[in-house]
Write a structure and sequence with these properties.
Strand order of the largest sheet of chain A: 6-7-8-3-9-10
Number of helices of chain A: 9
Radius of gyration of chain A: 18 Å
Number of domains of chain A: 1
Number of strands of chain A: 12
Order of helices and strands of chain B: HHHHHHHHHHHHHH
Radius of gyration of chain B: 20 Å
Structural class of chain B: mainly alpha
CATH class of chain A: Alpha Beta
Number of helices of chain B: 14
CATH class of chain B: Mainly Alpha
Number of strands of chain B: 0
CATH topology of chain A: Rossmann fold
Oligomer: heterodimer
CATH superfamily of chain A: P-loop containing nucleotide triphosphate hydrolases
Helix content of chain B: over 70%
Chain lengths: ~250, ~325
């Protein structure tokens, strides 16, 4: 379980979040939702060091996460960044290899385990045909997949994804949801920042809602709907509808 | 594609090495007095000949060729490091103000230790180090490290250039030295001037190459690099310090040579790709070739007059810089 306890978080020298407490259960998909500027990215970036925790604690499976060495953190929790700048001029395979960085010694030689993890990640994301192409030559959606493959190659039990559906077309978004479900089936814990509320309700086991830089509440999708939490924060109405493919949500 | 890139790299290294050897021989043989290859080889192998040509070779041309190699290698590698670590294709030791910092301190050493050439190397590195630490502090407090480093560098560079001109104006005794110094020249370099810089330059290139994988990871952006367990801030300081050491050592004997660090890494990327572990040694090698060509051209084109190497490098480098501005707008350079 990943747990924030009374965490004060700042970006640079600017305090952004105060007294944040939230839990993300192991083996589940948790969607972190909220309006723009509610502090979702700042909260999660405290996990990779882009924002810093000035007070409070973060526990990962009971251990003080912030006390772990950076290399050790990178073996336990991987991070899919929302903002990455322009695409690198390296092959997809080269990018995926970077996911093995935490496991490489000083010589940075690839071990058979590294090669195996890389190939699995490339297969998993359906990038076998593109493995030798430059990332910068791929479409935005394919680039997202390449970064996801890098994250998968990192083989961490906890996977944080900050808006991974960006740049993806509708089929791409559908495939991403299937990939995330498949990762959960493999025992991964996925924490997902997602703006599409309908998809969050469909894919998540639990939802953590942020509003005006605070945790507004959390629960299963059903609990969040029933309590009116999502409707209040997003100022919308949500209508569950039975379809042949299961429950879908109409939001207006 | 990877195999093709490896093949391209091998061909690049082989051709550059052959070209370098050829330029070394030409550099030793050509000039106001032409020395045949056989005599060059004899003097280099025997070492104790006392003919006029042997004296010219040992005291003028050999130091000059070695200075050219160290200059190109140091500035080329420094450019490759800075462009990758700052993710900006317009970064070089010139643009981030390191050269000016080193130059300003060298000029101070001309005033305070005019008869101690060894003090120059130390002062040059000290100047480069102080400048780069100042710029890193500025970037830290401005909270925008990459872009701020470039902008702060340009500002500091202008400030220090003005300070150097002020010193030149106030102290007549160093004007003659400072003229060639501000343009950049290899004329008059002695072997004794190169000992300390060589001790700095060669290990710095080696260390940067060995740490190249970290540089590759940094080019993915701070967030991704930190997620992969890299201590980004530590490595950024290490790489900027290595680049400062390289640039400072070169400035100590060659003056403010421009554009090598800017152009050479771009040409290398075209042939060898973006892997810093290949790019840094490739930039060192091609940098050496580039400087030797410019120095040789400066000596031969208008003989018996000589053009300082810095003039030819700037004449060829400036149009390339403008081309980069137009084509890339100084955006990221990924590894």
């Amino acid at each position: 379980m990943l747990e924030f306890k009374n965490a004060d978080i700042r970006v640079g020298r600017t305090p952004i979040l105060q007294g944040i407490s939230a839990t993300f259960e192991k083996g589940r998909i948790t969607a972190l939702v909220g309006l723009n500027g509610s502090g979702k990215t700042t909260l999660l970036q405290s996990l990779n060091g882009l924002s810093s925790v000035t007070d409070g604690q973060i526990f990962l499976d009971g251990e003080d996460y912030l006390a772990l060495a950076p290399g050790e953190r990178a073996k336990r929790l991987s991070f899919f960044s929302q903002l990455r700048g322009s695409a690198p001029n390296i092959s997809v395979r080269g990018l995926v290899e970077h996911g093995r960085f935490p496991y490489m010694g000083f010589s940075r030689k690839r071990s058979p385990e590294d090669l195996d993890a890389m190939e699995k990640a490339i297969d998993f994301t359906g990038l076998s045909q593109e493995a030798d192409r430059l990332v910068s030559e791929l479409s935005g959606g394919m680039q997202q997949r390449a970064y996801l493959a890098m994250q998968i190659a990192q083989e961490c039990p906890y996977m944080v994804m900050d808006e991974p559906q960006n740049f993806l077309d509708l089929p791409g978004q559908r495939e991403l949801l299937l990939l995330i479900r498949a990762l959960k089936e493999e025992g991964k814990t996925v924490i997902l920042v997602i703006h599409d509320l309908e998809k969050a309700l469909r894919i998540a086991d639990r939802i953590v809602v942020m509003d005006r830089r605070r945790i507004a509440g959390s629960g299963t999708p059903g609990e969040c709907l029933e309590s009116g939490l999502l409707q209040k924060v997003f100022d919308c109405r949500i209508h569950p509808a039975e379809t042949e493919e299961g429950i879908r949500y109409l939001i207006d | 594609m990877k195999k093709k890139a490896h093949a391209n790299s091998r061909i690049f290294f082989l051709l550059s090495a052959v070209l370098l050897v050829l330029l070394i021989l030409l550099g030793l043989g050509l000039g106001s007095v032409r020395i045949p290859l056989r005599e060059i080889l004899r003097v280099l192998s025997e070492g104790d000949a006392e003919t006029a040509n042997a004296v010219i070779l040992r005291s003028v041309r050999l130091p000059r060729v070695l200075a050219g190699i160290l200059t190109g290698a140091g500035l080329g590698a420094a450019g490759a490091i800075l462009q990758t670590v700052l993710n900006n294709s317009l970064a070089s030791s010139n643009t981030i103000g390191v050269n000016s910092g080193a130059g300003f301190f060298v000029m101070l050493s001309m005033i305070f230790f005019p008869k101690d050439p060894a003090a120059r190397s130390g002062m040059a590195f000290l100047g480069a180090l102080i400048t780069v630490l100042f710029i890193l502090c500025l970037a830290y407090f401005a909270e925008r490290s990459r872009v701020t480093i470039i902008l702060a560098g340009i500002t500091i560079s202008s400030f220090l250039s003005a300070a150097m001109n002020l010193i030149k104006t106030l102290d007549d005794s160093i004007v003659i030295n400072s003229l060639t110094f501000s343009i950049g020249s290899l004329a008059g370099v002695r072997l004794s001037n190169l000992a300390y810089p060589a001790i700095g330059i060669l290990p710095a290139i080696l260390i940067a190459t060995l740490l190249g994988k970290a540089l590759n990871i940094m080019s993915l952006g701070d967030g991704t690099a930190m997620s992969l367990g890299l201590k980004v801030h530590h490595y950024r300081i290490v790489f900027v310090l290595l680049a400062s050491l390289l640039a400072g050592c070169v400035v100590s004997y060659a003056g403010l040579i421009s554009f090598v660090g800017l152009i050479v890494p771009h040409v290398c990327r075209y042939f060898t790709g973006h892997d810093a572990r290949v790019l840094i040694p490739a930039s060192a090698l091609l940098g050496a070739v580039f400087v030797l060509i410019a120095d040789l051209a400066g000596r031969v084109l208008f003989a018996p007059y000589e053009l300082p190497v810095g003039i030819l490098l700037s004449l060829s480098g400036a149009p390339f810089f403008l081309y980069l501005l137009l084509k890339k707008g100084g955006r990221r350079v990924n590894a």
